[in-house]
């Protein structure tokens, strides 16, 4: 009987070894398929110096074309009507409204001139409900004006207007606008997930001013600028040598100081400063030299604005998390990344946001606990057989941007 028992144990062990070996072979094949997706993505996303030089040269060509004529380039190269930037000697109470993505910010600042500089400032950030991003123009601007009115009502005694002055508001509007003066401009198109047709072609300053009137708020919009121009102005306030600014956030853009006599499409009198700030709107840049992958192409095709804002869709915070989700979905479909079943939430567009991806990217723990926690919280993933490879996937958009 002992021999029979020993034989049974040996047989069971043999079966166990065979099953383990078979499982290891199956896992190895799945690893191989997952790795193939990842390596293919890295190869197609490669941006060596030679390619980056080609991209830079192509952008320079588009810049010159955009300065020469309206509509002559993929880049807007929009004349901002800002011909002078802060000197650091400004005094008084000023308000600012920054609308540039899924959140907007309101700010008040007391400036004390060259000696006092920024005496005091306060700000607040408000999330825009998703339905307002695709609703009506009045609903959106009324929501913004109501939040601004509430913020003004909280103004403390440390802030004071110069005698005889009305409250002034600088409006940072981070979407393509065709300006006709420093305080007026018509919306060319929405980006970053907004889609309100009736606002396109309308003067956004007039839309905001009407909403302020409906709130009974005594405030004048004295300047309309893009967020990139606002960043440039802020940089110049602290350093007179600043000549360019770049935004890398929900969207992406750049602005710089151009010589006014180098802008062929400028037909007015040359400004006394001899300069003009140009809003490039480089999010719409596209070139055959850009490393577009199948994931970028699919994302663009399914977006609200197919064929537009290609550069922005490659590198901005609005889209990086979604690119990672699409990569994970393909690895799951082809290599059962999360087990035999595809997590239902993984099929939901934009459920994985760039902040989630960034947290995974910065996870240096040995067991990748942050990666695991985020996948569980966001995607409902419990089984993580291929957890180590996910850290590599979360790095991909950064490789595309920084290589």
From TrEMBL:
GO terms for molecular function: ATP binding; D-glucose binding; fructokinase activity; glucokinase activity. Pathway: Carbohydrate degradation; glycolysis; D-glyceraldehyde 3-phosphate and glycerone phosphate from D-glucose: step 1/4; Carbohydrate metabolism; hexose metabolism. One of its GO terms (cellular component) is cytosol. Residues 40-237 form the Hexokinase N-terminal domain. Signal peptide: none annotated. The keyword Nucleus does not apply. InterPro entries: ATPase_NBD (IPR043129), Hexokinase (IPR001312), Hexokinase_C (IPR022673), Hexokinase_N (IPR022672). The chain crosses the membrane at residues 378-400. This is Phosphotransferase. It comes from Triticum urartu (Red wild einkorn). The lineage of its organism: Eukaryota, Viridiplantae, Streptophyta, Embryophyta, Tracheophyta. The gene is LOC125526483.
